[in-house]
Amino acid sequence: MERTSINAVQRPDVNGGDDGTCTQWRNWSGFWLLGLCNNFAYVVMLSAAHDILQKQQSQNATASTSATMAVEFQGGNSSNSSRYDCNPVSTAAVLLADILPTLVIKLSAPFVIHKLPYGFRVLFCAVMAATSFLLVSFSSAVWMSILGVIFASIGAGLGELSFLSLTVYFSRDVLGAWGSGTGGAGVAGALIYSGLTQVGLSPRVTLLIMLVIPFAMLLSYFFLLVLPHSLPQWRDREAEYTAVVSEDRQALMDGSEEEEEQENSIPAEDRTSGPLTCTEKLHVIKSLLRFVLPLGLVYFAEYFINQGLMELLYFPKLFLSHAEQYRWYQTLYQVGVLVSRSSLCCVKIRNLWALSLLQVVNAVLLLFAVRFLFLPSVWLVFAIVIYEGLLGGAAYVNTFYFISKETGDRHREFAMAAASVGDSLGIAVAGLIAFPVNRYFCSL
């Protein structure tokens, strides 16, 4: 990595001039848009998949409605005899189909992804997002829409671990921008898609309009970000390795004297050049467990609520229908996520286990609420759902902030990618457990 390029390009906060301020804002905006685009395609594609499947008039009602229950619940099955207004298949079934491709990518890619330069990764993610839009838009069968879900999942998973790794080449405040952008994707995706279809555009036309999102991802990366010359975009990383100067990288990450002193205390083996060995990667993974385990627990409790319990929290004597109540649960949850993922510039929380335990308390409370139906009002559920989103978003951004801060230079890029498996693993386990729990309640 070239020392001059680090100082000249990646330290806008240290330079302090107009060019430095402009560079800082371009990088912050670029990562915000990358976060938005990376998750936006997935959110919008799921909503559109439901509308397309409805038009197909599939005889298998379970398959056609479950394709997007993770985003929009369509009311209960009036023919069942359950005390709950249940659908035949839990939303957890769709959750598993959505998350498993991402989980496979996050488990395997960190060990080999360094061989693929960032430029190719971004192009691949944009192609995956565009393909998912086109497949769902022109789908004529259920399998085509499901394939669209898979492509979106692969693109979002690879994009998340790649862009998190990319943040190590910039000042640490871009982590807050990335987190805020991913939080905004849930709210913006649902609102924009609903708005365009509400004014009369067909789901197919709306999806084709959304092809601007992958294009915006490419613009954000290749034209908005001020990329350092040392960043390997089109060539193999291993061919470009040179000695990395610890003082320069730390000044890049943060200009404070306190963190410079902390960086200087990193052992010499962390400052050596060359690609990480397999043994080193396993050692890094072991050191990441203190971050990955609480993050996984937060997301396990969070998605156990969202996919196993939310559709059962129905208040029949209300001006909102069951479908409308569920949509509001999802919307308010996304608002909470957006607020907390944008909070890194204001507050930082080091005790990640506290966030995990608070989220588990939420899950237990709502589990008992579903079983014994003791919650008096939907407004109380609304408040709990917002709180749930706040905890989940805070756990996400603070996890990666402290990984970036406390990991040595040599290991930081790999650590950011490897730790991204935590949330997906928690979501997958939540889906596995939420499915039989939902079936149990619907059988009562």
TrEMBL record:
The keyword Zinc does not apply. Residues 252-273 are annotated as: Disordered. GO terms for cellular component: endomembrane system; lysosomal membrane. InterPro entries: Battenin_disease_Cln3, Battenin_disease_Cln3_subgr, MFS_trans_sf. The chain crosses the membrane at residues 31-49, 118-136, 142-163, 175-193, 205-227, 351-374, 380-402, 414-435. It is a multi-pass membrane protein. The keyword Transmembrane helix applies. Keywords: Lysosome, Membrane, Transmembrane, Transmembrane helix, Transport. It is found in: Endomembrane system; Lysosome membrane. Pfam families: CLN3. GO terms for biological process: axonogenesis; lysosome organization; negative regulation of neuron apoptotic process; regulation of intracellular pH. Belongs to the battenin family. PANTHER family: BATTENIN. This is Battenin. The gene is cln3.
